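Record now logged underneath.
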Amino acid sequence: MYRHLIFPSLLCSLALAACSDNEELTPTPSASREDANYVGQAVGNFTAAEWYPGGQLGTTLNVSQSCYEDETPATTAQGLAQNFKNGEAFFERTYNFSTKPFNGLGPAWVRQSCMACHPGYGHGQRQDSYRANTYGNGYLLVVYHPTAGTDGNGNAYAADSYVTELTGMPQTKAADPFLPPVDESGIHISWLEATDGALPLQFADGERYSLIYPEVSIDASAFNTQPVPDNYEVRLESTIGIYGSGLLDAIPDDSLKAQYQAAAAHAKLNPGMWDAAANDWAPGAWYTLADGTKAIKRFTYALTRASLQDGAGANAIWNITNVTRADRRKLYTTQAWAQAMSQNEQVLQAILRNPTSPYYADGTREGVAEAVKTLLSPTTDQSDNPFFNFEDEMADRDFYDFMVWHRGLAVPRARNLHSPTVQRGKELFRQLGCTACHRPSWTTGDDNYWAPAIIQAQGELPRYPRQTIWPYTDMLQHRLFMKNDIRTGWCRTTPLWGRGLSRQNTGADDRLHDCRARTVIEAIMWHGYSRESDAFTSTEAFYKLNKEDRDAVVAFIEAI
């Protein structure tokens, strides 16, 4: 695997030679050979710093087909390169039942590897059917209640809440003899044309575009839970690129607050995050970390996580595979699934025929049923489970290396900033008002990151103090009112940095939360599907541009 990494002190001085060497090895359309003459210099309306979206400590000069996988200069300078490589293995390898250190899969799971969801470390790819084992399928099934009601156990639920019979990231695979919580054969995805948007599907110069969106359903018979969910709808949410996540983690909470205050002066923000009357955080903005520390949510489309070290990958390495560790000695399952498996005659009879099964208990049907119900339950601590001889499946050191890798992923440098077309695109992007949501830059703080005790006991993680970074996101949620929109309608602004390298790194260029946009143009025009959209005015202005200017905006987005 070719990596081009530069220590911070050498980043600028070696930029020209480094890029020249790299591009002669693997020239790409997204990074012309002429870049080597300009990297690190102010060009047109771009400052010298904008060549380095992740700052001096977080940018890789590599723009080849492996650039999403690179470690940051900070990681190298802190002596963590080997830890980074060790941690990378836990992202890329396929998990199984018994082969250490990649054992612990199940008893139900979402994927067998992280990389299956993040092809080439980037955005997931659009799918026509839901199959967990399809490489590039970054979809998570979002199964939720569109209206308030009462579930099969008599418990009240609110509108837009996840169904409780499934895990938040629904599982479609399970170890023999169990049935998966959701049978994949009962999941249906159809792609439909959106023809009723606020803007015509043809620009004034005759160029046409189309908008498609997914219609997703799950048959009631596909749920292997007791009770079965009712009053539910299904949406898709795809994974995004994970490079640069550590830099976003380093943005101070007070900077986030200032951004919310500035945005609230002219826009409606999610009331679950921001109290407009008090001009301050709403109670729902705070996340309680593992040790009780409070922090502001900043990760995921729905803004459900506050720290990279207690969310995003730190959470996913556990709940995607169901691999337990010292700080997660519990299964990612639901009581409804455990109940269904303890009542399924096919499951019980299979265990009764196998006295070596850990669920065999006393060999009676009643004993097996109780063991299944107990073992599959999402108990607080599996070490207290009488049917389970507990052993941490992921060692503390391996988890530490994984987090070094996750926090240590670099952002690829910008490309083609010397191009007059790209420079024109940048100015148009600003004039159109796109920077109101896609805020160009942030400055990181001291980066005194939070980490759980088992990480702190192992060592430091990569740090990014006082860096100017260019992710092109305001880190806030907005509403676009798209057809079959994301659950709740509120979606965090996705960073644009490095997205122009998606096709060469992942094999696809699908965009937006469910991969409905196949091109940059489609992604932009979905922002103006409804006149209610927070971005309608900007999208309408883009729609009125001539083709040369539209192409310039696209070139700019692909360059950053």
User: Anything to note?
Assistant: Residues 8-82+401-559 form one domain. The first strand starts at residue 59 and ends at 60. The mean pLDDT is 92.
